[in-house]
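ingest -> fold -> write
write: protein_1
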Amino acid sequence: MFIGHFAPAFLAAAASPRSPRLGTLFVAAQLVDWGFFTLATIGVEAMRVDAKASVMNPMDLYHMPYTHSLLGAAVWALACLIVVAIGQRNLFAGFVAGLVVLSHWPLDWLVHVPDLTIAGTPPKLGLGLWNHPAIAMPLELALTGGAFALYVRRTRGPIGRRWCCWR
């Protein structure tokens, strides 16, 4: 998933007025990837460019136990929950932001070739939709577009109901 990670952010922002702001949820949606690239830069996690890795993504993500394992994503989600809950003095907002972080793993599971793990060690998991762009791209656009449409219908503001003709 690329833009598809923003779908849970739109859904979470539309879910309740007590949810974090959309910008916070966008950060939550990408936190796992930002963590991966930071850890890869310092040599803790690893990737290499390989044109044969998948049809849509030439990155061979061969070592990412701290970010793209389900356990790792859960730790990132818990950290985000704590930071948002304290920063906004709102446990509900922290919980919602943590769920958006955690949503990263199942969305990646859909598209990644088998390179995800449960706890950092094999088996490696992934349905590999990146090898089927005719499925992956419409799925990602539909998820994001549908979530955005719901967000626009349920919220107020520059892109919410008050300013839009969709009713």
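write: protein_2
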Amino acid sequence: MPPTTAVAEGKPLVEDATPYHLLFEHGMNGMLFTAPDGSILDANPAACQMVERSREEIIAAGREGLMDGSDSRMAELLADRERTGKAHGELSARRRDGTLFPVEVSSVLFRDSEGHVRSCIIIRDISERKSAEAERERLIRELQETLGRVRTLSGLLPMCAACRKIRDKQDVWHNLESYIRTHTEADFSHGICPDCRQRLYPETIRG
């Protein structure tokens, strides 16, 4: 059974001392009572805190002032609600300073005690969830790019025992350094080890 409503200037739609009133006043999610034409009839404290506006400011703003009307998802959600009597989706809400933020919206149509069509809308701020999803996507992209750049050698490499050249799958022999540069991310710097220095340049070694 929907909550009892009474449209009156400055009077909350949800009557005091009912379970609906307690849910409306103390619920963690934003709740709005609206009319199909976009008028907002009432807003709970959670909705006021979410969009940083008073109840009176929300009512004065209406749907167009509270939500991003240019979002194509708005028309789709309203069409779904008109067709089925309920709708669920993601939209962009607007704070007092005009900044937009992502929200998850659930809306259902009902008739009040006077037979007027009204809607109850529950709004959840999903900014943190969207930020986490974006960060996860960024990390996945970075990982994919990194993996795409990494090339590794595996298996047995045919190597000449004399000159140390590598034979590829096309039976072409390559210099070891050029082969590794081509097939991995490794590169080379050159020096001379003590054994070779002793053998090739003994005059440079002090006693």
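write: annotation protein_2
Residues 19-127 form a domain with the Beta-Lactamase fold (CATH 3.30.450.20).
DSSP finds seven helices and seven strands in the chain.
pipeline exit 0
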